[in-house]
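quick q for whoever's on today - can somebody do inverse folding on this one?? i tried earlier but teh output was garbage lol. C-alpha cells:
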C-alpha cells in the first residue's frame, strides 16, 4: 500500500515538518522492541495512549480498532507499534494516517509440506500485536476478541458487529481492487490473492460469529 507522506505540509511554497511519534516513542519503548512479544506496546497500550492524548478520542480509537481488525482479516503479520503513530501540531494530536497495511497471504505456500525457501507456513502465521495474548492467527477465537474489546473499555457485542461489517466491506471491495491489478500485471497472482483473502474472510467471520468455518458468506 502506497500513501502520500503525511508528516510534511507545503504552505506558501515552503515545506514544513509535522511532528509525528510512532507508538513506541509515545510509550517510551525502544524501537527494537516494536513487537509486543519483545516487550513492545500491546493494542490496549496503544488505545490507552490515544485516549490520553488524542484531540478526538472516540474517532481515533475507532480508526485504530478498524486497522487492527483489518490487519487480522488480511493476515498482516507485521503491524507492529511503529506502524501506528500520532501527529502533533500545536494543541492538536491525532492518530496518524494508516500505512504498511500488507497481507502475508501471497507468501504462504500452497502446499505447506513443499514449502520453498521464501514461502511461509500459513498455519504458523502470527500477529505483531496479540489479541488478548494470542498471536497465532489459527488460535484466535471469538472469546479472545471479546476479552480484548473489554480491555479497551468498549462493548464487545458492538465491536464484534463492527468487525463483521468490516469483513463484509473488504469482501465487497475485492473485485474493484483486484480488477485493475489484473489489467496492469496479468498473471495468476492477483486472482489467487483475491481467492486467498476471501477464504481468509470466511475463516474470520466464523471466528467472530462462533460458527463453523466455510467459504465467505456475507
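ok took a stab at it. sequence:
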Amino acid at each position: 500500500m502506497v500513501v502520500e507522506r503525511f508528516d510534511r505540509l507545503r504552505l506558501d511554497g515552503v515545506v514544513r515538518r509535522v511532528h509525528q511519534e510512532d507508538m513506541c516513542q509515545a510509550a517510551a519503548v525502544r524501537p527494537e522492541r516494536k513487537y509486543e512479544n519483545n516487550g513492545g506496546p500491546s493494542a490496549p497500550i496503544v488505545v490507552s495512549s490515544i485516549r490520553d492524548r488524542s484531540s478526538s478520542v472516540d474517532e481515533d480509537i475507532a480508526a485504530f480498532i478498524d486497522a487492527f481488525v483489518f490487519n487480522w482479516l488480511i493476515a498482516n503479520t507485521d503491524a507492529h507499534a511503529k506502524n501506528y503513530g500520532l501527529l502533533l501540531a500545536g494543541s492538536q494530536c491525532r492518530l496518524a494516517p494508516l500505512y504498511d497495511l500488507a497481507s502475508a497471504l501471497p507468501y504462504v505456500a500452497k502446499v505447506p509440506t513443499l514449502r520453498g525457501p521464501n514461502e511461509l507456513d500459513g498455519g504458523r502465521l502470527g500477529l505483531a500485536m496479540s489479541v488478548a495474548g494470542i498471536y497465532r492467527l489459527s488460535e484466535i477465537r471469538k472469546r479472545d476478541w471479546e476479552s480484548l474489546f473489554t480491555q479497551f473499555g468498549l462493548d464487545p457485542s458492538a465491536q464484534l458487529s463492527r468487525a463483521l461489517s468490516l469483513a463484509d466491506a473488504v469482501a465487497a471491495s475485492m473485485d474493484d481492487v483486484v480488477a485493475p491489478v489484473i489489467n496492469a500485471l496479468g498473471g495468476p497472482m492477483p486472482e489467487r490473492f483475491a481467492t486467498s483473502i476471501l477464504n481468509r474472510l470466511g475463516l474470520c467471520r466464523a471466528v467472530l460469529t462462533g460458527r463453523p468455518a466455510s467459504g465467505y458468506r456475507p
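fwiw The chain has six helices and seven strands. also The first strand starts at residue 8 and ends at 11. so keep that in mind when u check it
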